[in-house]
């Protein structure tokens, strides 16, 4: 099997559509070859049928196979494969099962390993899971059997190339009536805030939109575990964590990124998702003049946020009283 070149790792275009870019350049010659093969078998097909066969082959070999139509749909945020005949999507209203299927479990495994290679990661029996970002920003997670019982499990979270406008969120019902004015006032006052919610609730979507409303003269520095924020803003610096290599070296944590971000003259310091000891560095920064900082935190309700932050603070050795003191001074919303 052909290896993945450094260029393909850096610039395949997108999870499926870009991974097929090289194949697209050969579409004409492939069409002729397929047509010739079919004629030898005594079958005659028109140009449309031949192109359909070529596209299907290319999708299977260098694209995302049967998942391509799902990933291309603008309303889809997540594509989940739990078995060859169990493919689920989230279109913004919860998970729904699709009619999409793979030929067999081996086809799911091949796709997961190929996408991992595009992301520059290893996925095999010795390292049976991967968590990576594809070049277009799509978040990839995959687990191979026997760790995943029965079949390879594949999860793709689609990151759209642009953030929604505040008006679009209001129209969609994500922001309630009157909420837009409050959010604008919060940003104008440079208040520090956290966006909380459960998995798939739209925390990243809302935060991307809010950052797009920040003054154009301001510098935004993002620190993320996986680069998912897409603010519509002209001055954004993006920092992303990195796992350790095969020798256990070279890891860059979110806490490392927060500390580096503080040295980069941020007007707005943003932590994509606060999920560990970096909470103490963020609160420390907000308490030392970095107004307007923000981030997201996973909590099912607003009332659960203090307990969640207490748990995160404990990972950095911060006791409950000290954490509450810093929270009261650092966060406004």
TrEMBL record:
Low complexity composition-biased segments: 13-24
Domain Bacterial type II secretion system protein E, chain residue ranges per copy: 62-329
Coiled-coil regions, chain positions: none
Biased composition (Basic and acidic residues): 1-11
Region described as Disordered: spans on this chain: 1-24
NCBIfam families in the record: heli_sec_ATPase (TIGR03819)
Entry similarity comment: Belongs to the GSP E family.
Protein's name according to its UniProt entry: Type II/IV secretion system protein
